[in-house]
Amino acid sequence: MTTCFDIGGTYIRYGALQEDGAVAESGRVETPGSDWHRFVAAIEHCAGKDSSAISISLAGAYDERSGIADVANIPCLHKRPVRQELEAALGRPVLITNDANAFALAEAVDGTGRGKPVVFGIILGSGVGGGLVVNGELVKGVGGMAGEWGHGPIMDPTAGGQLKGIDHYSCGCGQTGCIDAVCSARGMERIHTSLHGSRLTSKEITEAWHAGDAAATETIDAYTTLLARALSVLVNTLGPDVIPVSGGLSNDVALLDLVDRKVRSLVLAQYTEPLVIRGQFAENGGLHGAGIVARTTLGGVTP
Ligand SMILES: [Zn+2]
C-alpha cells in the first residue's frame, strides 16, 4: 500500500492510494515545522505499518536531482535532502513532488485538463506558483523550478501607465516587483492599501467587491489587470489548453471569470472557451497528484 501526503506549513494531510487511483484522505495532523525527529515520527505514524511506499506533495521547491527541498516555512525540511533521509529513516521508497506540480498533474491526468496536451496549473493563494504538464508529462526543468512563474522582478506596477499609486513591493524571495508580491492574496491586500490607505484582508476586499463597494472594485480591477498581463505572456509562450487554478483565491469564481476574460482579451490565440478556471482538484490536488506520481513511478496500481 502506498500512503500519500500533502505537507504544508500548517498541516500534514494523508491518505491511502486506492486501486481506482484516488486517494482516500484519512486525516490530518499539525506539521512539526522545526523538529526533524518529530516530523519523521509524524510521517511514520500517519503511514502506519502496512505502508510500503510514500508519495509526498510538498509546499516548497524540490530538486529531484539533488534531493534538496527548499521550503522556508517548514524549517526542519529546508535545505535538507528530505527524500534520502526519509527513506533511510523509514526503510521504504519516498517520492516527493512540489505541491503546484502535484496539482497541475492532477488536473492534467484526471481533472479539467484531461486529454488536453498543455496544462498550466496555477496557485493563487498566500503565494503564486504553478506547474506545467505537457502530453501528460510533468515538466520539471532545471532545479525543479519549471512552472514557478511567481518570481523574478518583472512586474510593471503601473500596467503600462494605466494604474497609479501602486508600489514595487518587496517579495519573500529577496527581490522586488515579483508576480508573487503583487498577484498573491497578500499582493491584493497591498494594492488595496496603496490605492486606498486602509488595510483589509483579501477576503474582506473580495466581499466588499461583491457588495459593490467602489474602493474594492478599483482594487480588484487593478489586481486582475496586473495578473492578466502577467498571465498573457505565459499563455503566448506555452499555448495552454487550460489554466486550472488552486489556492485560496480560486474559491472566488467571479474573480477567476474576470481574470479569464482579461487574459483572453490580451493573448494572440483565439480562445472561445474559458481558459482560466477553478481546478477540479483545487481542494485536494496535492494528495491526488502525489497519488498519480506513485501510480506512474512505482506501478502496480492501475487507474
Ligand atoms: Zn519573488
Description:
The protein has 303 residues and is of the alpha/beta class. It folds into two domains: 113 residues, Nucleotidyltransferase, domain 5 (2-Layer Sandwich), CATH 3.30.420; 167 residues, Nucleotidyltransferase, domain 5 (2-Layer Sandwich). It has nine helices and twelve strands. Strand 5 and strand 6 form a beta hairpin. It is globular. The chain binds zinc ion. The site of zinc ion has 6 residues, from loops.
Assigned CATH superfamily of the largest domain? ATPase, nucleotide binding domain
Structural class: alpha/beta
Radius of gyration: 19 Å
CATH topology of the largest domain: Nucleotidyltransferase, domain 5
- Residue share in β-strands: 15-25%
Q: Report the strand count.
A: 12
The helix content is: 25-40%
Helix segment tally: 9
CATH architecture of the largest domain: 2-Layer Sandwich
Counting structural domains, the number is 2
Contiguous low-pLDDT stretches (5 residues minimum) are: none
Shape: globular
What string, H for helix and E for strand, traces the elements in order? EEEHEEEHEHEEEHHHHEHEH
Hetero groups bound? zinc ion
Q: How do the strands of the widest beta sheet line up side by side? A: 3-2-1-4-7
Question: Main beta sheet: strand number and arrangement?
Answer: 5 strands, mixed
Which CATH C-level class of the largest domain is it? Alpha Beta
N-C termini distance: 14 Å
Family: Belongs to the ROK (NagC/XylR) family.
Protein name: ROK family protein
Pfam families: ROK
Organism: Roseibium salinum
